[in-house]
Amino acid sequence: MKLTVLGCYAATPRTLTNPTSQLFEIKNQMFLIDCGEGTQVQLRKHKIKFSRINHIFISHLHGDHLYGLIGLISTFTLLNRVNDLHVYGPKGIKEIILLQLKASASYTSYNLYFHELESKESELIYEDDHVTVRTIPLAHRIYTNGYLFREKNSQRKINIDEVKKYDIDVCYYQKIKNGGDVVLEDGTVVDNKLLTFNPEPEKSYAFCSDTVFNPGMVPLIKNVDVLYHESTFLESEAHLAERTMHSTAIQAATIAKEAEVKHLVLGHYSTRYASIDAFKEEAEAIFPNVLLADDGISFDF
Amino acid sequence: MKLTVLGCYAATPRTLTNPTSQLFEIKNQMFLIDCGEGTQVQLRKHKIKFSRINHIFISHLHGDHLYGLIGLISTFTLLNRVNDLHVYGPKGIKEIILLQLKASASYTSYNLYFHELESKESELIYEDDHVTVRTIPLAHRIYTNGYLFREKNSQRKINIDEVKKYDIDVCYYQKIKNGGDVVLEDGTVVDNKLLTFNPEPEKSYAFCSDTVFNPGMVPLIKNVDVLYHESTFLESEAHLAERTMHSTAIQAATIAKEAEVKHLVLGHYSTRYASIDAFKEEAEAIFPNVLLADDGISFDF
């Protein structure tokens, strides 16, 4: 599970900071989360193969999370993309993108699917053999969702030494991984537990930006491995957090603590602060495992 | 008259090159021409005061000339802009911008005026005391205009030594600048030519991008001081220029020669070329005064 932060600053792109976009890799799948202006340049800078991005999740329709999407979609066509592209985001996103494609008479070289969201309840919006993605309804000035990525029940891991000891044919391996016992030729039943190790625990990642302090989300993100929670402001600007429906570092840490997550990653910093160190200091007073996102940083979990 | 090239490469923004945007300054007015993705970051990089930009001219609705506009308009609001902003561009531009502002529930802090264009004839679209702007209809895959900026008839310049010799009161100076003769108290008429120098010649700048080779534009840009003409391709890709309705360096130079302009500035280079030097070489075989635009370069004329 790998998180690459392409941009994690609030509001406007600047010479040295970028608005929100993240690449999240899990089970060899690559998901792009949010797409502020300049995201395609950040992808190039970090040498991400554009063709590996097949699913893009947009949290909400504020510019610092969205305005790079039309350019990325257009660039995919200029690169002669053929793979389907799926975009998940608030209702209205399809009209915004299609209006611009139509005005430029530039249709995509690939199938472009929109999955528009409008529910205020958490929904399962993506599922494959290895991963599920659910929405996390957030409370912001406009309709906003976080996204919860979770590995699916892993198969048991074969204990190859034991399996060879019993001279079990390779055709039974999938059955063993699925938890089945094996009947040998002499009728002996070998318990699955003797042949396997426990599966790796299912990993999970919750992306929560933008949102006001909202303990209502805690049950949805309980015990996740990694929580990215916006912290636009420090405590000294708590009044601005409330007014603009953003969070402080302390509020993000409070959510992390209540949800008993393993790691909290902070981001979406207001550009008013000369340094982001104080975000970590303030959050650590509440919750111990705090990491600071920054543009270009990758985390392996 | 100063031209600052913020971006001059075709198609997609990359780590080291930017799509089209230029700042053109004349008579202390600042005009932004085109606004590809990342333009606001280029403006910051070159320390341009955002509040000095009151007029933005968009040539056409392809992304590499447009996709930075919504972000710039949004950032103006975040910076609490109060001055009116005027956007000139093809019909459809207003709907594109307003749809996105509406979706983000982010209205502007200032008056935003759209001047939508749909004529296929050259039109006067801007005029103040010092400058006029006319459209230059271009031939591209979608409706496209170049823009012709021209100083207005300058006033004559007072020859202060002569004026003092005749002991002419300061209240006559404006009349003299406007070309009027002066009647002295003894009834003598002093010819304006004795009191003034000829005005500076009216300077002019023609921005022509994107366009296929189109000699039809020559009468509109005859004798301009500076012609920026797109040259997406070298001669070896002339077939691509024709197919995509772009120009080669030689075609740009041919227009410059026929229009008898003073300087030709090339730009809108395809990103397929490792170096842009060959554009100058090919163009100079046709027309002598060739300058190469590049991101971040300024020209004073």
Automatic annotation (TrEMBL), chains A, B:
Enzyme Commission (EC) number? 3.1.26.11
What enzyme class is recorded for this protein?
hydrolase
Q: Which cofactors are reported in the record for this sequence?
A: Zn(2+)
Where is the catalytic site? D64
- Could you confirm whether the keyword tRNA processing appears in this record? yes
Which amino acids does the record list as binding Zn(2+) 1?
H60, H62, H140, D210
| Pfam families linked to this entry | Anti-Pycsar_Apyc1 (PF23023)
The record describes how the cofactor is bound as: Binds 2 Zn(2+) ions.
**Amino acids binding Zn(2+) 2:** D64, H65, D210, H268
- Could you tell me which InterPro entries the record lists for this protein? RibonucZ/Hydroxyglut_hydro (IPR036866), RNase_Z/BN (IPR013471)
Mind telling me which Gene3D superfamilies this protein's record contains? Answer: Ribonuclease Z/Hydroxyacylglutathione hydrolase-like
What Gene Ontology molecular-function terms does this entry list?
A: 3'-tRNA processing endoribonuclease activity; zinc ion binding
Protein keywords = Endonuclease, Hydrolase, Metal-binding, Nuclease, tRNA processing, Zinc
What does the record give as the reaction this protein catalyses? Endonucleolytic cleavage of RNA, removing extra 3' nucleotides from tRNA precursor, generating 3' termini of tRNAs. A 3'-hydroxy group is left at the tRNA terminus and a 5'-phosphoryl group is left at the trailer molecule
Family per record: Belongs to the RNase Z family.
Query: What do we know about how this protein assembles, alone or with others?
Result: Homodimer.
Q: What does this protein do?
A: Zinc phosphodiesterase, which displays some tRNA 3'-processing endonuclease activity. Probably involved in tRNA maturation, by removing a 3'-trailer from precursor tRNA.
- Which PANTHER family does the record cross-reference, listed alphabetically? ZINC PHOSPHODIESTERASE ELAC PROTEIN 1 (PTHR46018:SF2)
Provide the protein name: Ribonuclease Z
What organism does the UniProt record list as the source?
A: Flavobacterium sediminis
The gene it comes from is: rnz
